[in-house]
Amino acid sequence: MRYRLIEHEIPDLEVADLIAVMRGQVDEVAHEAVAAIGAELPVLVRPHEPQYASRLNQSVSWTISGFIDLMEDDEASLEDIKAFFREYGAWVSEQGLGPEVWETAFRIGTGVTISRLSEVVQDHPGVTTTIIGLIAQRTMGYVEDLASAMRVGYVENAAAAAEGERRRRRRRLLESLLTRDPDLKKIERLAEAAEWPLPRSAAAIALLPHDEGDDSDQAPEFHADTLIGMHDRRPCAIVADPDGPGRRSAYTRDLHGWTVAVGPTVPITELARSLDWARETLDLVQDGTLDAGKGPLWFAVDNIPLLQAARERQLSAQLVAHRLAPLMTLSGAQRERLALTLKHLLQSGFRAVEAADRLFVHPQTIRYRLRQLEELFGPALRNPDLHLEYSLAVHYLLNLPTSVPENGSAASGAAPEASKLERSRQKLTG
Fold it and tell me: What is the spatial distance between Cα 286 and Cα 422, in angstroms, rounded to a whole number?
């Protein structure tokens, strides 16, 4: 084997002997280097925290042994020792020690190692001042490689720690914003600590995986200033200035398999209310009131009539039963067909051609159905004072589960049917 690190003509046997001599001095040189480092940097050898001295001893011993390995074979792998120093750099960062500490430790250790190893080999046959200088030069280059590895570990851990602290602060801010009647002064302090510019208005967002068994913690991608709470039992988020230009389209950047409901825009002290509306919107998606097939993104303000009806299902069912009583005597299919026709007639001002266009049927079909409706409802059908009630009742009938019985009486007063979500909850709790 050629000892290529020493690029001078020294017989192999003498080089092998030189390396053996140096290996025999590793423990003594390491002990002296550790003592010198500890004398100048006592923070690295705390008597009551032995892991500090243990790590320092290990790092110095490995540094010297690794260098001698390179002298023996300059193709020896440094991956293991570099990995150790990356981990050591991360540990130093976790302890809150600044980079100047370990940089100083490397400087002291390198100086002691070069000095002591030079003394050990200077009287060895064939060793000249040139070779000693070469060993010193290579030692410094080798130590710089290890210092670079340690620097990477230190910087990566420091960045991760900073990001972790930033997330913790934003989590505390999100939790405070979603409390009832939050303290504005406290919110301002938390927002400043979290580096979150406090907006004048915001909206809460409710999140739901497409598959209920999906435990993925990958959150949907929103604006960078969105506060995301994946830790909550029902994950949520807060988006600042949601009505700004282009903000609505940004919600669909990448939802990663989640269904998203955005609550109404409110002042920052009323976000709990916004979250209530967002979660109620998701409930309507879950129970089938809102068609999940229309997409993963929903806005509470686009579904206010159904949200309002869902909050007062009995009252909504009573409106349907009272105002649409004539339809309740019909079969399900006929009732739905005439209800849908009535909806579009109300929206078009009873213009048959326009209603036909909306329903993709012939105008004569609409006129026939209108005559049926007039026979069922009588003059009340054309009463403009009732059109709002008719519109709401038809909307509820077509979209919100109710318990109005087939062929039942309008005055039956039956309680509304439990939604799919309510039934599933009953199964879970029953």
Answer: 10
Highest mean pLDDT among 29-33, 269-273, 302-306: 269-273
Strands 297-299 and 258-262, by their bridges, are: parallel
- Is residue 196 within a helix (H) or strand (E), and if so which, with residue range? none
Q: How many residues does the chain have?
A: 430
Euclidean distance between CA atoms 255 and 261, whole angstroms: 11
User: With 70 as the cut, is the pLDDT of residue 424 above it?
Assistant: no
Torsion of CA 26, 27, 33, 38, to 10 degrees: 160
What's the CA gap between 114 and 328, in Å, rounded?
98
Distance CA 409, CA 326 (A): 9
Q: Which residue has the tokens 């029953």?
A: 430
Is residue 190 within 8 A of residue 173, CB to CB? The reply is: yes
pLDDT tier at 137 (50, 70, 90 boundaries)? confident
Calpha distance 194→172 (Å, rounded): 9
Tell me the pTM.
0.61
What is the 3-state secondary structure of 366-388? Answer: HHHHHHHHHHHHHHHHHCHHHHH
For residue 3, give the nearest of 140, 14, 130 by alpha carbon. Answer: 14
d(Cα 144, Cα 133) in Å, to the nearest integer?
17
What is the DSSP pairing of strand 236-240 with strand 266-267?
unpaired
Q: Is the pLDDT of residue 3 over 80?
A: no
Is pLDDT at 169 greater than 90 in this prediction? yes
Condensed to tens digits (0 to 9), the pLDDT of residues 48-92 reads 788 888 888 888 888 888 888 877 776 777 888 889 889 988 988
User: How many Cα neighbours within 13 Å face the side chain of 264?
Assistant: 12
Of 111, 49, 138, 54, the closest CA to residue 88 belongs to: 54
Closest CA to 416 of 285, 305, 284, 321: 321
Nearest to 147 by CA among 78, 65, 96: 78
Token reading at 6 = 């020493």
Closest by Cα among 266, 345, 333 to 300 = 266
User: 327 and 376 in contact (C-beta within 8 Å)?
Assistant: yes
